[in-house]
Request: fold
Amino acid sequence: MFGTHDLALFAVTVLVVNATPGVDLAFTLVSTLKGGVRAGWAAASGIAAGCGVHTLAAAFGLAALLAASSAGFVVVKWAGAAYLLWLAAGMLRQGMRDTAGTAGSSQAATTRQSPAQLFRQGFLTNVLNPKVALFFLALLPQFIDNGAANKTAAFLFLGAWFIAQGFAFLAAFVWLVAPLRRWQPASWARRALHGAGGALFASLAIRLALTERP
Reply:
């Protein structure tokens, strides 16, 4: 279809990629635990929209330009790392402010983010990660026939497949982890969870910052 091949293998590859722990999975998990199914779906939708940008970039050559330009790669890389650090700092601040009892519950309600905010954050965490752009550029051509009449259409088809399957995976993941919100941890446990989330995103930011252009 559209000059592609081995679509079953492509589907398996996408599943492995989606199930591998990373920024997208971590952000979806944190959003779901803090805000429930609706919040998790909003985060997953933002991530899917970010993948749409990478699909267009790969199809129309922007990802190739990013791979060839050291300056462009560095700019996007540091922007992504800075954004992840900003998210980590927010989680750590929320953990330090959390108190036991009614005050803690009231504050949790006031600090809960809207679906629009979570969509935007999911979108930015994905778009500002140059590794995703280069991954699309490296993965999709492997499933396009050399003699394909329209390679751009093939890129768009595979990208749309990746987005649809990835969103379906994250949506199912949200359903699986959402019941964990029924657990009402003590104040110290909430602080620990926020601290762990902040540390996770800080480590992902550092890993992204240390990434070298291939």
In short: The first helix runs from residue 7 to 19.
